[in-house]
Amino acid sequence: MRAPGGRMVGTRWLWLAAAAGCLHAAFSLYWAVGGTWLLATVGQWAVRARAESPLVVGGGLAAIGVIKLVAALAPVLTERRGPSWLRRAVRAIAWIGAGGLVLYGGANMLIAWLVLGGAIRPDGGYDRDAMIGHAALWDPLFLIWGVCLAIGLWLTRRRSTAQPHEDDPDESD
């Protein structure tokens, strides 16, 4: 049995996840329209690609930004609205996304810190700005997004045999 207010706390975690995802999306969209601040923390390859093919890369970044926005906002926006089939579909996809974000963000953050600390020495060296960006900014943000999403999904789960909670009037949908 969950504590009263668990769904409300879970929704807050979903909003935290949405904030992390929207921050990621905002940078993708900013770079899509030509911004360059912190682009080097993704890698010099991204700086070069943006300079060499601004329309193609900008279009790709815009698509990535929109996908991130949808992925960030869908779980929290469908939590109490819309048909139950949509909520279930979004939650199933969100669980997969949460796992992917935690694994991707956590593994890449760890590897980046190991490279920066000298425990891993890539052949041919590495892009220090990008490694710092992945160790301390982008991959931790993916990890935070995934962890907050998983916690929010767990706390807002519905049990088919449970009675509706007083803080969840539509649980029986």
Automatic annotation (TrEMBL):
Transmembrane segments: 12-33, 53-77, 89-116, 136-155
Name recorded for this polypeptide: DUF3995 domain-containing protein
Species this chain originates from: Naumannella cuiyingiana
Keywords: Membrane, Transmembrane, Transmembrane helix
Source superkingdom: Bacteria
Record flagged with keyword Transmembrane helix: yes
InterPro entries named among the record's database cross-references: DUF3995
